[in-house]
Every structure is written in structure tokens, then in C-alpha cells.
Amino acid sequence: MTKLAFGKSHVPLSPAVRAGDFVFVSGQVPTDAKGSVVAGGIEEQTSQVLDNIKSALALAGCDLADVVKTTVILADARDFGPFNKVYATYFPQDPPARTTLEARLMIDIKVEIEAIAFKPQ
User: Fold this and answer.
1) Rounded Cα gap, residues 99 and 116, in angstroms
2) 3-state SS of 41-96?
3) Domain boundaries of the chain, sorted by first residue
4) Are 116 and 19 in contact (CB under 8 A)?
5) What is the rounded CA–CA span in Å between residue 102 and residue 3?
6) Topology of the domain comprising 3-118
7) Which of 32, 56, 57, 118 is 20 to 30 Å from 19 at the Cα level?
8) Whole-structure pTM value
9) CA 5, 11, 15, 19: dihedral to nearest 10 degrees?
10) 79: number of Cβ within 10 Å
11) Model confidence at 8: pLDDT above 70
12) What's the pLDDT tens digit per position in 42-69?
């Protein structure tokens, strides 16, 4: 099996990596194209993160419908309800398996999400 990385980052990681029929998307944070954290609360940040995941998946020829698993990290578990409401709009049918946990994040943000997609070559 060969590994193929997609995209570049200002930190030592690849936004997406294909390994066989799976695409692994690194944890995405709520930053815009210029690298600035988006203004707003959990809803705005969740939308930005999921848009960033869509962009990373596109680099590997995938989309959100190909996602089979996500791992969500919330800075504050009390944000789960509003987060979940936004998340559901991105996966309206057959949502992926998901793990959600609360942890302190590396920068001052409210949410980070990583994803695994399955798309046979």
C-alpha cells in the first residue's frame, strides 16, 4: 500500500493523507484561508472547521459523504448542544461514526475535528 499526502501546511503535517482506500484528514481548526481564527462562538467555529474538512477532503477527491468516522474535541462540553446542531447540518443522512470529547486545545479555539473517509481508488 502506498501513502500519498495532499496539501501543505505551515506546521509539520499533511491536511489529508490517502492510505489505500482510506483518506485521513488531520484535525482541522476554525481558521480562515489566511490562518486567522474565525470570530464568533461554537456555531461559527464548527461551520468553519467542517468547511475546512470539506476542503481537505477535496484535495484527495473526496467529500463529506465519504466520511466514515470523525473525532471531535470540544474545549467546553457545555457547547455540545449547539455544536451538534451545526454538525448535523453537514451530515444530514447516514452520519459517520463519531467520538466527542472535551479537552484543552492547543490554541484559543472552541472545536477541532479530524475525519477518516473511505473512497475506493
Assistant:
1) 12
2) CHHHHHHHHHHHHHHHHHHCCCCHHHEEEEEEEECCHHHHHHHHHHHHHHCCCCCC
3) 3-118
4) no
5) 31
6) 60s Ribosomal Protein L30; Chain: A; (3.30.1330)
7) 32
8) 0.92
9) 40
10) 18
11) no
12) 999 999 999 999 999 998 999 999 999 9
